[in-house]
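Re: your question about UDP-glucose 4-epimerase

S., sorry for the slow reply, the queue was backed up all week. Below is exactly what I fed in.
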Amino acid sequence: MKKQILVTGGTGYIGSHTVVELLSEGFDVVIVDNLSNSDISVLENIEKISGLRPVFEKLDLSDALQTESLFLKYPNIDAIIHFAAYKAVGESVEKPLEYYSNNVGSLMNLLSCMNKYKVSNLVFSSSCTVYGQPEKLPVTESTPRREAESPYGNTKKVCEDILRDSVSAYAGMKGIALRYFNPVGAHKSALIGELPVGIPNNLVPFITQTAAGIREELKVFGNDYNTPDGSAIRDFINVVDLAKAHVVAVDRLINDNHKTNYEVFNLGTGNGLSVLEIVESFQKVNNVNLNYTIVDRREGDIEKIYADTTYANKELGWKAQVALEETLASAWNWEKNIRNIK
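Result:
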């Protein structure tokens, strides 16, 4: 019998790519999403890629009664991958209460139902933002977490603590927190990718929308950081590589291959690249010219961060594979597809 995986936020960017990978590995998938930052058309495109249409439920996990209705309807869930969350750093600074209510509340509702209905396994979508601006680079899983630079970052930190305490308290519960660095790119089919609602908050979709003429110009936030070219440095990981790590993590929990009931892994490439390096690489790979300007630093941003992926590579048997050039080409192919650009 197929193992059933509940994927919250499964029509979103990382969620949709993970659903495709789960289906390709023979899992039965139930998606739950409130469609606040995604579109129902993603389901059709998942089906085009995989040949399978996952079950879909539209509901809000920050509502306890709606969350419980999900567990009553699907009593055979083997594991949950929890993506559903608000994720814009800048917006979280402006709307902290909305971020705490949604991001923390939804996890608490899930864990409460997991405990009540004896669902053991949860993979949590965390973030390298929990490290803040680390004193030493690259960051390992044992790098101290620092005070968050934004409410968004703090919700990830708080949620990690809630998950850790829950698996410690409730018999049989196990959790893995995956700390993402910067997911970029799209599926090679160009049928799914990052499609933010409104103005993009992440670098690459803003680049692709600028190249497509949707945005007048790209704003590079800051050129006075203590980095080689003055722009901020991040670790950019291909979204399909990231998705595959979730399949490995789910397998690890279901098959009891975990070392402890709560584990943490960094998911990145191990290479730090600056914002301006990404801009230049995108232009070169895709043979396009970008209109961009340097503006002041953005509140909540950190200067530089990139991963030490040694532990994840060894323990999970997983490693980021896709080259940056291929990743940036896939992002542009996705943008061209949705905008009907030849």
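The first strand starts at residue 4 and ends at 8. The first helix runs from residue 13 to 24.

Happy to talk it through on Thursday.
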